Amino acid sequence: VNLMEEGKDVLFDKTTMYVEAASREPTRGEILLNLAITLGAWQRVTLRDGRTLSRRDLCLEALPLGDFPHICYDLLAQCMETDESIHIPHLGRTLTKAEVFVESINSNPDHPGVYINLAFHLVLLEAHQKRQQFYQQKQQRKEENERERERMEKAKEEMEGQQPPQPHLPPQRKQQHFHHHNGASTKVTLADGRVVGPAQLMVELMRLMPGVSSHYTDLSMWMSAGETVTLNDGRVMDRKLLFVEAIAHSRNPRYLYAELADRMAKDETVTLRDGRVLDWKLLLVEAIRDGEQSSIKALGMRMAPGETVVYVDGRVLNNKQVLVQALCCTQCDNVRELLDEILADGRTVTLHDGRVLDRKQLLVKAVAARNFSALPVLAMNMRKGETVRLGDGRVLLGRRQVFFEHVRNSNCPGDVYGNREAYCCIALCMKAGEQVQLPHGRKRDAKQLLRDAIAISNHFDRYPLVALAVTLGPGETVELPGPGHGWTMGSRELLMKAISLCEYNEDLPPNEPKSVDHAAAIAEDEREACLRAHAAGNMRNFAVRALAQRLLLGEIMELHDDTKITKTNDGHVIRTASV
What we know:
Helices cover 46% and strands 14% of the residues. The chain is built from 24 helices and 25 strands. The strands form twelve sheets. A three-stranded antiparallel β-sheet has the order 23-24-25. The protein has a two-stranded antiparallel sheet with strand order 1-2. It has a two-stranded antiparallel sheet with strand order 3-4. A hairpin with a 5-residue loop joins strand 19 and strand 20. The chain is extended.
């Protein structure tokens, strides 16, 4: 705001205007309180008298002036740590954070905000106290064990050569663990003598602000299983009935249907306020009807094999058919997991209309439903030279074109990190010396694509490392960005680094059967074999095989986990663990 001061234009922001007002009317607590509200929790401001005050200092200054003390106490408590105490000068007492909130309620019992603030604080305070108690007991046991060890060592020195004394072990204690649970038992006493906890505070908040859906769900989170609470109208409710009330007062209850379904047993039903009696399946169907797409997968995964449900469009679907619906959602990003679940009992699935689809046809169906995250999975399930026709009737597309479709339809086409898997697959499908025009305009050859993917993943993604290793020719090296002048790496170094990034238990056992002839696959087309290994989640074993192909006959290579590998005459790899 531009104000005229002494004939000059002066620019004032909100905080500066309150500072100016406080200098002219220092006895108005309302001004100090408004100034405190404009500050952050730990921000400070300098007044015209030279004092530099924080938000809590301003609250303490405003409290004796008597303007809106309930807001002052509430704001002051929000500036305090969970287990902190503060001295209130005009009261002459030191109060905890909970007691400061109680002073706010005592000053104005009809101020709704403080009730939920105090309820949240009591839940956090109980968790904090239990955590402290756990670590204190752990430290105490450690000190007792240390004292016992010192006593035994001293007794051994004093009685050298004699029968050693029997150890005097500290009493055995049942091992305690800290578990945070929904129920909260910490309570406070109000001015009228009532002893209240988080649940009672939320009931009081409902009296002041009736009909707010989130108040019912917050209250249910702080109740233990089987616990009940009495509302202001006398109704006794458990956690399930509180969710029913939340649904009745919510304008968009789709996520509430899903949460209530998650709390119900398979043979349990609930009666909504409109009289409908629903089980967990019908609750999830209601959530789906309201647009909660994540509930489709939850419904299919929870249903038993062969179990059916009446879907939102009236069709009767079994669990596999519901999961196919989840696969075709635009927000589905766990395509591989859903495919494995749908095809767990075989290679095909039967849809409601009688069509029988295999893995590739399911992916085409998902892409036709605009689930573009299925595109890279579809491409990796295609063989070299194979084509596919997408659901919109366009011409046949090869594997590389399908990867391009994924990049083109992604939310950020220029983001290498988001598309680095597709970039690696495109590079593996390219010929030597070939360049591709990316959707965002740049031209890249295979090595440049892979170098970009490695750089953007900070060298912690094994797939582009292995893909680049199998793209390099014999004796060829590549410059990668890194500390100092970067790294110059060949195929062997890239494969060693990729193997070190793999988890030991993610692939097949270390010594595979002779029927798995990786050597023959690598010899036929190493880059195609790399693509197939990535699609199968077998990158570590492939990287070991590819590294072995680069060893001289009889040469021994030691990996990062002390495993040694060597190549035999028939091209197989022998792995031995170091002793």
